[in-house]
Specification:
Layout (H helix, E strand, L loop, with lengths): L2 E10 L2 E11 L4 E5 L6 H9 L6 E6 L2 E2 L10 E4 L11 H11 L4 H14 L15 H13 L5 E5 L7 H18 L2 E6 L2 H7 L2 E6 L2 E6 L1 H6 L4 H6 L4 E3 L17 E3 L4 E4 L12 E9 L3 E8 L2 E8 L10 E6 L1 E5 L4 E8 L6 E5 L1
Helix pairs in contact: 2-3, 2-4, 3-4
Bound molecules: adenosine-5'-triphosphate.
The site of adenosine-5'-triphosphate has 12 residues, from strand 2 and helix 1.
C-alpha cells in the first residue's frame, strides 16, 4: 500500500506531540520511525492506525483519505513490543483471532493459520499457550496474528524491545526477510539506531514531534541534515573551536563542526610529512575494536575520536600525534554544508573544497 502523510498535527492539551508531520511511503517498503524517547513516534503510528485522531492534516492510503475511517476499516496489522497475545488462547487461536472476527469459515481459517505457522517457523507449537513460549516465539506469533487478516500495512511498535540482545538480532533479520518476501508495506518504531540502520529501507527521523530527515540509512549517515541527526545516527565528534586548529582558521564563524571518526586520520611522528601544517594533539585513549583501533586524541581541549586501521603501527596513550580531517559538516538553521579537505601530499596543507 502506498501511504501519504500530509501535515499531521496532534496536540495533547497544550502539548504539541506531532508537528506538521509529512512523508510518503512506497508500496512494499520497510520504514523505520527512529528518534529519542518521547519524540512522537508512537503518536504518529497510532494516528496511522486510527487509534488517535489528528488535530489537522491528512493520511492517504492508495491515494484515498482514511482520516475519517475507523481503525478496523484501514486494513492495518499491528505488532506491539509486549507481544499482547491473548493469554488464555493457544498459538493457533491467537493467530486465528482476526479471521474469527471476520467470521471466516473453519477450513479457510485452518488453511491460513497453517500457512502462517509454516511461514513463521512455528509448526508444532500451535497448541501451546503464550506462557509456554520464548520471547522470540511469542513475537513470531504476534507477527503471524497481525498478518492473518492480510493487512495492506503493518505497523510495528518497538517489536523487539522486550527481547534479549541475541534473539533480537536474529528476529530483526528474520523480520526483514519476511517482509521482503511478502512485499507488505511496513512501518516500525524504534529508538535503536543500529536496528533502524540494519533493517529499514528508509528511515524517518523524528525529534520533538517533527520529521528531522527522511532517507535511506546510508543517505542519512553520509548527509545528515542537522546536528541532531548527525549526532543521533552513528558516531560523531562535535568540535566547537575548529577555527583555532592549525590550518582551519578560515572556518571562523561557521559554528560547531561535526566530524565522523572515519574521517579523522591519526598520524604518528614517523608517518607525518609536515607536522607544522597539521593540528597536533595527545592520545588520551586507545581501544582495540577487533576491526580497528578507536583512538581518542585531545586537540586544543577537545577530545576527538578517530578510527585507525590495524595494519598501522599501534599507538600509545600519551603519544603526540597529528591529525588530518578529511571531511567536516557544518549546520546552519536550514542548511547542511559538507567540507571535504584535499591535502597537498608533500606539505599536508589543507585545501578546502565545499560540496
Ligand atoms: N494520550 C496522551 N496524553 C498526553 N500526552 C501524551 C499522550 N500520548 C503521548 N503523549 C505525549 O506525547 C509525547 C510523544 O509520545 P510518544 O509516545 O508518541 O513518543 P515516542 O517517540 O513513541 O516515545 P517512546 O520511544 O518513549 O515510546 C510524549 O511527551 C508523551 O508524554
Amino acid at each position: 500500500m502506498h501511504v501519504i502523510v500530509r501535515n499531521l498535527n496532534k496536540k495533547f492539551g497544550s502539548f504539541h506531540a506531532a508537528k506538521d508531520v509529512s512523508f510518503d511511503i512506497k508500496k512494499g517498503k520497510l520504514i523505520g520511525l527512529l528518534g529519542p524517547s518521547g519524540g512522537g513516534k508512537t503518536t504518529i503510528l497510532r494516528m496511522l492506525a486510527g487509534l488517535e485522531i489528528p488535530c489537522s492534516g491528512d493520511i492517504l492510503f492508495h491515494g484515498k483519505s482514511v482520516i475519517n475511517s475507523a481503525p478496523q476499516e484501514r486494513g492495518i496489522g499491528f505488532v506491539f513490543q509486549n507481544y499482547a497475545l491473548f493469554r488464555h488462547m493457544t498459538v493457533f487461536q491467537n493467530i486465528a483471532f482476526g479471521l474469527t472476527i471476520q467470521k471466516k469459515d473453519k477450513k479457510t481459517i485452518a488453511n491460513k493459520v497453517n500457512a502462517l505457522l509454516e511461514l513463521t517457523g512455528l509448526q508444532g507449537l500451535e497448541n501451546r499457550y503464550p506462557h509456554q513460549l520464548s520471547g522470540g516465539q511469542r513475537q513470531r506469533v504476534a507477527f503471524a496474528r497481525a498478518l492473518a487478516p492480510e493487512p495492506q500495512l503493518l505497523l510495528l511498535d518497538e517489536p523487539f524491545a522486550a527481547i534479549d540482545a541475541k534473539v533480537r538480532k536474529e528476529l530483526r533479520t528474520w523480520l526483514k526477510e519476511m517482509i521482503q518476501r511478502l512485499g507488505i508495506t511496513s512501518i516500525f518504531v524504534t529508538h535503536d539506531q543500529e536496528e533502524a540502520i540494519e533493517i529499514a529501507d528508509e528511515i524517518i527521523i523524528i525529534n520533538q514531534g517533527r520529521v528531522e530527515q527522511v532517507g535511506t540509512p546510508m543517505q542519512i549517515y553520509k548527509h545528515p541534515r542537522s546536528a541532531f541527526v548527525a549526532n543521533f545516527i552513528g558516531e560523531s565528534n562535535t568540535i566547537r573551536n575548529i577555527e583555532e586548529w592549525k590550518g582551519f582558521s578560515k572556518f571562523t564563524g561557521l559554528g560547531a563542526a561535526m566530524v565522523r571518526p572515519e574521517n579523522v586520520e591519526v598520524l604518528t611522528h614517523e608517518e607525518v610529512v609536515r607536522a607544522d601544517t597539521l593540528p597536533r594533539g595527545v592520545v588520551s585513549n586507545v581501544i582495540f575494536k577487533g576491526s580497528n583501533w578507536q583512538v581518542e586524541v585531545n586537540i586544543e581541549g577537545t577530545t576527538v575520536l578517530a578510527y585507525r586501521p590495524l595494519e598501522k603501527k599501534e599507538i600509545s596513550v600519551g603519544e603526540e600525534v597529528n591529525v588530518v580531517i578529511h571531511q567536516l559538516h557544518f549546520f546552519d538553521e536550514d542548511k547542511a554544508n559538507i567540507v571535504k579537505t584535499s591535502f597537498n601530499k608533500s606539505t599536508h596543507k589543507p585545501l578546502a573544497i565545499y560540496i
